[in-house]
Amino acid sequence: MATREEKMEAFGQLLDILDELRVRCPWDRKQTNESLRTNTIEETYELCEALMREDNTNIKKELGDLLLHIVFYSKIGEEKEAFDIKDVCDSLCQKLIYRHPHVFGDTSADTAQKVEQSWEQLKLKEKGGNKTVLEGVPASLPSVVKAHRIQDKARNVGFDWEQRDQVWDKVQEEFNELKTEIDRMDADKMEAEFGDLFFSLINAARLYKINPDNALERTNQKFINRFNYVEAHSIKEGKNLHDMTLEEMDKLWNEAKVLEKEGKQDDSSKGISH
């Protein structure tokens, strides 16, 4: 691994390269906060995918892409005389020190949960910080992640079940209410009750220390792999999926499940174009 001096030199080179690109490259020169925003979102998701796969090669690559965006936004801020990368780093360091009084101050916190509870209180006290507990949850977060963060923040101020298994009564209650609205076929109320059921299931996941977004993504990937197996083997058999019966597809699906459990699913099922 690199020394601290080598790391600082590498970061300095990145700043130098971006300075030159901003002057000499037509594409880099024309970029704005708004034009980069969607690319930043895409790069974040690509990093998340690499993290899910524990693919260190692509984690390194995608971290680099995100770092470029951070430096790029800082450069744009510098050109506007609003802030620069030093201001970004200084602000982050100040926040980290302030929110870790158990490390840099004289308070104590011997568990991760106590640290999180302390953070919520400190955020409310920060100048320009959150005025309410839930204000720090970004409105643009994906719904599953947002629900988890909302519930986690409420927990940090004591709004939570006394015993985690109590949540299953709430899940059952929401499921029964959904069934009632399904019987009535009221589209708006069905959607509302589906939301309540999802929210209660995400709450259950939190209580049992399951990341609901990761759990759902695992199921997404499992479905993709199994469906790709069905599609790949239908092609091998010279059949079009549209022409196959549900029974034929179910047979291939079950084959994929068996191979998956045995860790033998062949690579052809992963080769279908995304």
Key structural traits:
274 residues, globular, mainly alpha, Helix Hairpins
Give me a quick take on this structure.
The protein has 274 residues and is mostly helical. The protein has helices at residues 4-24, 26-30, 33-53, 56-79, 85-98, 101-104, 112-125, 143-156, 167-184, 187-207, 212-236, 246-262. The two termini are 36 Å apart.
Structure characterization notes:
- It is a single chain.
- The protein is built from 12 helices and no strands.
- The protein is mainly α and 274 residues long.
- The protein folds into 3 domains: 4-96, Orthogonal Bundle (Helix Hairpins); 161-210; 213-270.
- Helix 3 packs antiparallel against helix 4, helix 8 packs across helix 10 and helix 9 runs antiparallel to helix 10.
- The longest helix has 25 residues, at 212-236.
- 8% of the residues are buried.
- Mean pLDDT is 90; it is low at 267-274.
Please describe the biggest sheet, giving its number of strands, its sense, and whether it closes into a barrel: none
Summed up, the helix count is: 12
Percent helix, as a range, is over 70%
Beta-strand percentage range: under 5%
SS-derived structural category: mainly alpha
Rg estimate, integer Å? 25 Å
Give the termini distance in whole angstroms.
36 Å
CATH class of the largest domain: Mainly Alpha
List low-confidence stretches: 267-274
* Order of secondary-structure elements: HHHHHHHHHHHH
CATH homologous superfamily caption of the largest domain? MazG-like
- In total, the number of domains comes to 3
So what's the overall shape? globular
On the 0-100 scale, what is the average pLDDT? 90
Give the strand tally. Answer: 0
CATH architecture of the largest domain: Orthogonal Bundle
CATH topology of the largest domain: Helix Hairpins
